[in-house]
Design a protein that fits this description.
Helix content is 34%, strand content 23%. Strands 1, 2, 3, 4, 5, 6, 7, 8 and 9 form a nine-stranded mixed beta sheet that branches. β6 (110-120) and β7 (126-128) form a beta hairpin. The protein has a single domain (3-233), classed as Spore Coat Polysaccharide Biosynthesis Protein SpsA, Chain A (Alpha-Beta Complex). The protein is globular and about 45 Å long. The two termini are 25 Å apart. The protein has nine helices and nine strands. It is α/β, with parallel strands linked by helices and 244 residues long.
């Protein structure tokens, strides 16, 4: 099974080399890493170009478009049936590609596979052995996702059938990964791998919020997410609702 990896970058020179190498080590000759750079002002693009790996397909936004639009373009540029999402500053642990791709291949009704992750700091030290334990364990239903999101995008692999429903991203959803997890509950099943297959780096430059948002903002985000899930459900072919 060939796979694509979709990555968004922005001023990621500090960590992107190590992350991309951890990804490429696991990709086959016919796999691809699609990187969309969101108008970085550092040497992120130069570092990616210097790798000289034909599996890396680099696209540069002419101006800064933000994380939602950049990830959406990266996903649209992918060519294979199974697509991994990747951030610029994390690290893949050995066998991530094999295990998540196999999880989808062995479960025809699954449209999303997700693993646990270790949480690391800027220096690479493990600060939490399980991201999911920090979220009170994985729960993949729509109700659970609206209450507390467990869909960590950089720990996901998805089928193209999910993208057919999930794209375009609604402009006012809080996070692309939360949207993918929520809309997947209307499309197919989720397979959860209860072991860390990557290291999720938390640092001051993360795009995603590290601290709890104000209650009013959280409620607005959840309302918008639910509204879009319901609207998209009327036009989406529903294969199998997840029971996980």
């Amino acid at each position: 099974m060939q796979v694509s990896v979709a990555m968004a970058t922005y001023n990621g020179a500090r960590f992107v080399d190590a992350q991309v190498r951890s990804v490429l080590m696991q990709l086959g000759d016919d796999d691809e890493l699609v990187v969309v750079d969101d108008a970085s002002t550092d040497d992120t693009r130069a570092r990616l170009t210097a790798l000289g790996d034909r599996r890396v397909r680099l696209h540069a936004n002419p101006g800064n478009r933000g994380v939602l639009a950049t990830f959406e373009l990266a996903l649209r540029l992918t060519r294979h049936e199974v697509i991994f999402l990747a951030d610029q500053d994390d690290l893949w642990l050995p066998d991530k590609r094999r295990i998540l791709a196999a999880a989808l291949e062995q479960n025809p009704r699954a449209t999303l596979a997700l693993s646990d992750a270790q949480v690391i700091d800027e220096a690479g030290a493990v600060v939490a052995p399980s991201f999911m334990k920090l979220r009170d364990g994985f729960r993949g239903t729509l109700a659970a996702t609206l209450f507390k999101n467990r869909y960590l995008g950089c720990a996901m692999a998805i089928r193209r059938a999910l993208l057919d429903v999930a794209l375009p991203f609604p402009a006012d959803v809080p996070m692309h990964d939360m949207w993918l997890g929520a809309i997947n509950t209307r499309v197919g099943e989720v397979v959860y791998i209860d072991r860390p297959l990557m290291q999720y780096r938390r640092h001051s430059g993360n795009v995603s919020p590290a601290h709890r948002q104000k209650l009013a903002q959280m409620l607005r985000w959840r309302w918008r997410l639910l509204k879009h899930v319901v609207a998209r459900s009327f036009t989406a072919p529903r294969q199998q609702q997840s029971a996980h």
